[in-house]
Each structure stands twice: as structure tokens, then as C-alpha cells.
Specification:
GO terms for molecular function: RNA binding; RNA methyltransferase activity. This is RNA methyltransferase. InterPro entries: Alpha/beta_knot_MTases, rRNA_MeTrfase_TrmH, SpoU_MeTrfase, tRNA_m1G_MTases_N. By secondary structure, the chain is α/β, with parallel strands linked by helices. It is built from 7 helices and 7 strands, in the order αβαβααβαβββαβα. It has one domain: 3-Layer(aba) Sandwich (Alpha/beta knot). The chain has a 7-stranded parallel β-sheet with strand order 3-2-1-6-4-7-5, sandwiched between helices. The two termini are 32 Å apart.
């Protein structure tokens, strides 16, 4: 096997990416403090064709060198918006018929492997702060809570890793529909 060159990967230009049909998913970052995590989420959103990222509360915004260090230019291709209050955004997205899912460890959570997106439905997945997770008032106003099954000794995954796992799972399930 031979590793492919950058030219052989045939990646879309930023303009081509912006015009492509996206998966029916937006990401909501609820007070994510690490700019490296924010940049990684941008890169994941670009890779898997996410509609938009909402950067809420204290979550940093581009342009910033620490975001760019991990985003590698994805801040130019992925649509994003800063919103000061996560709960207000969640309520607004619900009015726009998005199903809201918080990615968190909570009572009566739905294990990721048991989650099946409804065809044609748009979703917003809320990813929480590195220490405190998703705010309780946001969880209370979510339609469901997704939990990534874990089997080791640690109680959580890094937010950028969790985002990659959840978005890939969502994409693979919607592609199969």
C-alpha cells in the first residue's frame, strides 16, 4: 500500500465545500474553554460536512491562532456563529424544528449505539464544557441525551474526541438511510 499524496485526495475548495449539501446536523459548543478543542471541532465539522457550529458563552471564536492551530483552515469552510446564551439558542433551534440532543452522562440517557436519527429530521447536538459538561438547564430543555458508552477507568472523553465519535456515528447512520 502507498500513502496518497495531497493532490490525490481530491479535496473540495472552500467555495466548493460551502456549496455542497451538508448532513442535517449543527453542533452547539456550550462554554468550551480550550481553543484547541474549538479548532478540532471545526476540523471534524469540515471532515463530516456539518451544517454549522454555534459557539456559545465563553467558547472562543475565530480568528485566533490557537483555534487555527488545530482547525487548519476549517474556520474558513465551516459556517459558524457566536451566541452568548446556550439555552436561548437551544430554544430558538427547537422553534426551527431541530431535535436537540445533549451529549452527556445523565439519567435515562440514550446510548449512542442505540440512537437512530430520523430520516429528514435536523438535529443539534450540544457538546459541553471540559470540566462541567453541558449546563443542566440545557439538558432539561433537550429532546434527548446521548451518552457514549465507555468501558475504561476514566469517566469522560475529551470534548473534541467525543465530538468526532458522535458526528461520525451520526453521519454513518444517516448515510445508511
Amino acid at each position: 500500500m502507498r500513502k496518497l499524496s495531497m493532490d490525490e485526495l481530491n479535496r473540495a475548495s472552500v467555495e466548493e465545500f460551502k456549496n455542497k449539501k451538508k448532513i442535517p446536523l449543527v453542533l452547539v459548543l456550550d462554554n468550551v474553554r480550550s481553543l484547541n478543542n474549538v479548532g478540532s471541532v471545526f476540523r471534524t465539522a469540515d471532515a463530516f460536512m456539518v451544517e454549522k457550529i454555534y459557539l456559545c458563552g465563553i467558547t472562543g471564536t475565530p480568528p485566533h491562532r490557537d483555534i487555527e492551530k488545530t482547525a487548519l483552515g476549517a474556520t474558513e469552510s465551516v459556517e459558524w456563529e457566536h451566541v452568548s446564551d446556550t439555552l436561548e439558542l437551544v430554544l430558538k433551534l427547537k422553534e426551527q424544528n431541530y431535535k436537540i440532543g445533549s451529549v452527556e452522562q445523565a439519567e435515562n440517557s440514550l446510548k449512542l449505539n442505540e440512537f437512530t436519527p430520523e430520516p429528514g429530521q435536523h438535529y443539534a447536538l450540544v457538546m459541553g464544557n471540559e470540566v462541567f459538561g453541558v449546563e443542566q438547564n440545557v439538558i432539561n430543555n433537550s429532546d434527548f441525551v446521548l451518552e457514549i458508552p465507555q468501558f475504561g477507568t476514566k469517566h469522560s472523553l475529551n470534548i473534541s474526541v467525543a465530538t468526532g465519535v458522535v458526528v461520525w456515528d451520526f453521519l454513518s447512520k444517516t448515510m445508511a438511510q
